[in-house]
Amino acid sequence: MPRWKRSLDLLCLVLILPLTLSLLPLLFCWVKLVSPGPFIFRQTRIGCGGKPFTMYKTRTMRPGADPAIHEAHVRRLIASNRPMIKLDREDDRLIKGASCIRMFGLDELPQLVNVLRGEMSMVGPRPCVPSEFPLYASAHYRRFAVPPGLTGLWQIKRTQATTFREMMGMDIEYVDRLSAWADFTIMLQTPLALGRHWMA
Predict the structure, then answer these.
(1) Cα Rg, the chain, nearest whole Å
(2) How far apart are CA 198 and CA 200, in angstroms?
(3) DSSP string, 145-173
């Protein structure tokens, strides 16, 4: 990871720490109120250089939810190159309020621990699950040249019609044009992109 990228990540962590510390207790109380089970969801993801790591998220699914449902959905999207539509609106595995939590990216807040540990960055391609990794074409592996991120080029440019191949293209474009200015502008545009998708 470039030194400037690690420095920018640490600076962002310091700046957003007060907001994070105020939101996490509220999220914790809500999740524990509407669903039994742990607050934190741990999942193996593929990071920089294809190295697996444990990623943290706010749990938004019921305990014991079958991950095979999502894995099958992703396989269909990759094979057909259809728009990358999430299962959220028709997924009965979600806890109450999960769609809202996900819509505003609040489920990603625990990943700041991954950023602190250097396993992730504030900006980069989203980390895939191990079952997706073998489905990628050889050209797609370039996206693993940088640490995965909480947000990225795909998050700010995607539309409801964005396909898997287009998403991969955006990830590779980000890697090829890697710069501190690109990371800074992507972070600035992320709140606007979240609002745009919320209104869609």
Answers:
(1) 16
(2) 6
(3) GS--EEE-HHHHH--TT-BHHHHHHHHHH
pTM for this structure?
0.91
Q: Mention every residue, 6+ apart, whose C-beta is less than 8 A from residue 116.
A: 10, 13
The residues of the chain scoring below 50 in pLDDT are: none
* Strand-pair partners of 46: 52, 128
Contact 50, 142 (CB under 8 A): no
Q: pLDDT tens digits for 20-64?
A: 999 999 999 999 999 999 999 999 999 999 999 999 999 999 988
- CA separation for the pair 186, 200 (Å, rounded): 20
Separation between Cα atoms, residue 161 and residue 145, nearest integer Å: 27
Give the pLDDT score at 162.
Answer: 87
pLDDT recorded at residue 143: 95
Alpha-carbon distance 12 to 79, whole Å? 37
